[in-house]
Amino acid sequence: MANSDGALWEIGKIAEDGKPYVDLDKGTYLIGLIGLNEAVQYISGDQLHESEKAYKLGLKIVSFMSLKCEEYSERFDLKLSLEESPAESAAGRLAKIDLQEFPDSKKVIKGNLERDESYYTNSIHFAASAPLDLITRIVKQSKFHPLIKSGAMIHAFVGENRPSPESIYNLIKKVWENTQCSQLTISPEFTICNLCNKVSRGLKENCNNCGSKDVYGITRIVGYYSKITNWNKNKIGELKDRHSGNYKVRSQV
Ligand SMILES: [Zn+2]
Q1: Measured in angstroms, how far is the CA atom of residue 202 from the centroid of ligand 1?
Q2: pLDDT score of 152
Q3: pTM listed for this prediction
Q4: How far apart are alpha carbons 199 and 176 in whole angstroms?
Q5: 39 vs 80, 112, 123, 175, CA distance in Å?
Q6: How many angstroms separate the CA atoms of 128 and 110, rounded?
Q7: What is the CA(210)–ligand 1 centre distance, in A?
Q8: Which domains does the chain have, with CATH numbers?
Q9: Measured in angstroms, how far is the CA atom of residue 31 from the centroid of ligand 1?
């Protein structure tokens, strides 16, 4: 605390109200998960969505981690909890390091490895390209949510589809009534034209309105939307895999 040039110097400083800016004793310490799908695949040979055995192993691993959080919270008098961290960079960085250090990991790491688009599937999510219908994805992933206290979220990457308000209503109602899903997002993709500023659905090479090629795409990188041109390569790899997944919101669910 003596060195004002040091990192996080102000964190424990007393603010004008007499309390520290951040009270470390009252803070919650988050433990993020990345690549449950690949861990399970490496151990059992199947991805989370490919067999009941793999899925149950996933639940067992996360339950164990959740219990450890409780045990350590008590032992060290700290609030620890599991989080679905956004991990935009870590999901790619850890995959890259593992490919160097543990070449065997290429059996399970996702994305196009030749193009440096390798990644671990974020958190407890099922593979982005898993050929599951959306309801099954939500029902199965939401079983993990009571174990993850922070930021648990299921994404419906609907691409250029425009589900009707009724089908979205039916989906949300069903999820609310039948699952323990903490958060569900319905995430379309958009193309924005630099020339005429028109926004159109889906990721396109040309503007729907004026035909210009001077366009950019936006979609959800993790919890928030951003320009795809700013994404790192591993997220581009995941985006391609999302496009082969099945996230269709059906009118009758
Ligand atoms: Zn245009």
Answers
A1: 14
A2: 92
A3: 0.88
A4: 31
A5: 22, 19, 11, 27
A6: 9
A7: 4
A8: 28-243 (3.20.70.20)
A9: 44
What is the DSSP code (8-state) at residue 120? P
CA of 230 to the centre of ligand 1 (A): 21
The 3-state DSSP composition of the chain as helix, strand, coil percent (nearest 5) reads 35, 15, 45
Locus of tokens 């974020």: 122
DSSP 124-185: TPPPTT----HHHHHHHHHTTGGG--B---EEEEEET----HHHHHHHHHHHHHH---S-EE
pLDDT one-digit tens code per residue, 181-231: 999 999 999 999 999 999 999 999 999 999 999 999 999 998 889 999 999
Residue recorded with tokens 């490895």: 113
232 pLDDT band, cuts 50/70/90, is very high
Ligand 1 centroid to Cα of residue 201, in Å, is 13
* Residue 97 Cα to ligand 1 middle (Å): 41
**CA neighbor of 88 nearest in space, from 130, 111, 40, 120:** 120
Find where tokens 């960085």 sit. Answer: 93
CA of 206 to the centre of ligand 1 (A): 8
Query: Residue with structure tokens 């039948």?
Result: 178
Return the bridge partners of 31, or none. Answer: 82
Instruction: Give the DSSP H/E element, type plus range, for residue 93.
Output: helix 90-101
- Cβ–Cβ < 8 Å for 78, 198: no
What is the model's pLDDT at position 18?
87
The pLDDT of residue 251 is above 80: no
Unique residue bearing structure tokens 């939500």: 138
